[in-house]
Amino acid sequence: MAFLSGFLPALGAALAVSAAIERFGGAARAPFGARPTDLGLRLGAYTLLTLFWFVFSWRPWLAGLSTVLTVAALVLVSRMKRHVIGEPLVFSDFALLPQVPRHPQLYYIPPVTSPIIAGPVLAGFLAVAAWYVLEPSLLPRGTGAAVAAILALPAALVALVLAAQRPPLAGLVARRFPRPDLERDIGRLGLPATLMAYWLRRRGEGPARAPAIARATAAADPVVVVIQLESFVDPERLGGAPLPLMTLIQDRATEYGRLRVPAHGAYTMRSEHAVLTGRDVDSLGFGVYDPYLAAGGDEPTSLARLAAEAGYETVFVHPFHRDFFQRAQVMQRFGFERLVMEEAFGDAPRIGPYVSDVALGRRILDEVRNRRGPLFLFSVTMENHGPWKPGRLPGIDDPLAQYLHHVAGTGRMVEELVAGLEGERATLCVFGDHAPSLPTCRPGFGETATDYALFRFGAAEREPPRRIDLTADALGRRLRATVGAEAGVPAGASPAQA
User: Fold this and answer.
1) How many C-beta neighbours within 10 Å does residue 393 have?
2) What's this model's pTM, rounded to 2 decimal places?
3) What is the second-level CATH architecture of the domain 223-495?
């Protein structure tokens, strides 16, 4: 009884303040869920957070404060993320946290040594230490009882998590969350409950079924080069000067147009996965937010595997670290036999912090010229990766000006590739993975549409250019014909006027 009288007031205060933070802090665009069952799940998630923090101190008011701070931090981060890329915080974002200290230059957050970060963190630790001393513990008296309590509470929480992944609790979670609907679920149940439930749903999903694909039997085009262009859109859409590449595309490409991709300003892996697998978002379940977490590249009908079955050498070229997004591991599981990554570009020129796109394009042409047979090559550029911050380029500090400087290099790379592939029987596909997260390019820009182009070389008769707007997965299905897997216009294509 003494335990409850000490714990319940702190818990009640934590629940009330946390709910108020979400109600008035703009955690979701959907209405705040007021139905009893919705409120019950929301408060249940806050309670689990409080119990989690209580494990570390056995001090109820410290645990309650920790819960309030956790909810406030989640809401703040979610609002910041929504402002930049138009999407609230999702459970899969936590899997990317180890990348932040390893590659801090890729994020808009200050390093941990910055006073902006180090100051509040240090102050928080000091406040917790002081509170730890001042607030009495609720641990039972006696060594045996205290040890039993210290072991029992975390064991009970772990048991609850395990039970939630098995019937009957897993079925209840699945019925409450039948499909991903972030805005609605955060509004109804709150951000903590949605993060927990989506994680459980992803854990409970089996491997997503691969689409039925006609297997490749022979090489169609001896050379197939697909290049994912970092943050690429037609710069005129951002107010920049005309890019000569766009004129070349309209005059020379077999197909070109807008490419609707799964995200704005980030989540390269979503577009990458869609093109390499041809799978639409509805087939990914709760793995839609990070498809690499869903299957880790284990895709039997990926473009690379289909190409390998048809006798192609499969090569992945990316001038950056092997561990970022676990790309080396994922690409090998996709079916790429050879990886050409950062160590192969040690002497390559850089524009800003990254290997120049022109240097990357010349390495791609070397791979084409030195091939021993049919070649399928997939590449991801790096030069125009954000953030675009002062000091990145000498004499150019404006983010948009930096972006436009880099996108000109991207244009020169593709122009050189088009010239270099003339005379080959080949396919070249280039596409933007997502729009840039610039102050002048906020979420909603172009409905997440980038640009793509498909060039064909060596045909007896050159087809006239035509504009066809596609989704990223539809482009991936269209590319299957280039390695002899399947032909025809996929779902998701919409002819448009050039």
Assistant:
1) 16
2) 0.90
3) 3-Layer(aba) Sandwich (3.40)
What is the DSSP-derived secondary structure letter of residue 267?
A: -
At 111, is the secondary structure helix, strand, or coil? coil
> Which pair of tokens denotes residue 198?
């989506």
The amino acid at residue 380 is V
Rounded to 10°, the helix 399-421/244-252 angle is 40
CA distances from 466 to 1, 253, 294, 454, 496 (A): 76, 8, 35, 10, 8
- Strand pairing partners for 313? 375
Residue 44: name the closest of 167, 175, 160 by CA.
160
Per-residue pLDDT tens listing for the chain (498 residues): 556 778 999 999 999 999 999 998 876 778 888 899 999 999 999 999 999 999 999 999 999 999 999 999 999 889 888 888 889 999 999 887 777 766 666 666 666 666 766 777 788 788 888 888 889 999 988 889 889 999 999 999 999 999 999 999 999 999 999 999 999 999 999 999 999 999 999 988 865 555 555 555 666 889 999 999 999 999 999 999 999 999 999 999 999 999 999 999 989 999 999 999 999 888 889 989 988 876 667 888 899 999 999 999 999 999 999 988 788 999 999 999 999 999 999 999 999 999 999 999 999 999 999 999 999 999 999 999 999 999 999 999 999 999 999 999 999 999 999 999 998 999 999 999 999 999 888 887 767 899 999 999 987 667 789 999 999 999 999 999 899 876 433 344 444 433
Alpha-helical runs (H) found in 92-189: 99-102, 115-134, 143-163, 169-176, 182-189
Three-state SS at 110? coil
Sketch the domain layout of the chain as residue ranges: 2-204, 223-495
Structure tokens of 302? 């990926």
Phi and psi for 451 in degrees, rounded to 5?
Answer: -130, 150
User: If we measure between CA atoms, which residue out of 81, 109, 392 comes closest to residue 267?
Assistant: 81
The length of the chain is 498
Q: Identify whether 168 is preceded by a cis peptide bond (ω within 30 of 0).
A: yes
